[in-house]
Amino acid sequence: MYDYFSPNEAELVEIIKKNIGAENRLVKAETIQTGWTNITMDVETEQSAYIFRFPRNFFFARMMIKDCHFCQFVKGKVSVQIPDMQLKFDNNRPFSMHRKIKGVSLTSRMNDLTSEEEKRVAEDIVQFLSELHAIPVDTMPADIAESLNDFLTGLSTVHKGDYDLEKHNDLIAMEKTSEKPVIIHGDFNPGNILLDEEAHLSGVIDFAFASISDRHADVGRFVGRATPSLGQAVLEAYQAQRPCDEIKVQHIVDLFKYVEYKYVQYMQAEHPEIIIPEAVLAMAEQEGKRFNA
Questions:
Q1: What is the pLDDT of residue 271?
Q2: Contact (CB, 8 A) for 55 and 3
């Protein structure tokens, strides 16, 4: 069993200094307040920029290790840049570091994209998903291979309050009847997609939810967190390559609304220092009203 970290910034800075090398002077180490599962530090040195992530509990430590292993597995198999993750340990506490990928999150840009930029982003997203989903399932290392349902069931154990596992029923049915299970990102939302200045994908991050599931899982996760116009652009670009069952997409949208509702409950109870985006809070509140009606 792994240990984990508390948000003691002074301690984390000392760990960072040890891992960037004595010859590489630290310029900045700031906590990214929107980090949920991890205490995430934005680090600048005289030579480079890094992201350090320190998990907040045992299950999140497991996610950290999975993320690192998956990034090494998928490296070179997709054309978009992914983090070159280094898994480190402080005593028995795992943490990760990687050089920062240039770009800004799609979340910060998607409300300002032109229709042409939306089309460009949608085409890049579908290209990435096509490459990821084409990786043979039987090549995924056994120690990180699991279904999305199994992963989300494990994640449910950290949530506070009652968690209704029947919310997973549509996902379970999809995974049982999938014509061809694929390797998925699992948490393919705009916050995990980076854009360059020309509104092309510059990187994809955070593969801790990576699983084997139905291909609609990634599409639904994205559509549920995108603006309506960008979500529609992705659906249209995806449909242009292969049929897409919009009922399955909606099943995933609904499931992740519930998962985020329970996730927000947990974060508000256990980590009030985390700044949860207003849009996520509003969606969680709406889902809570629907669930408790």
A1: 81
A2: no
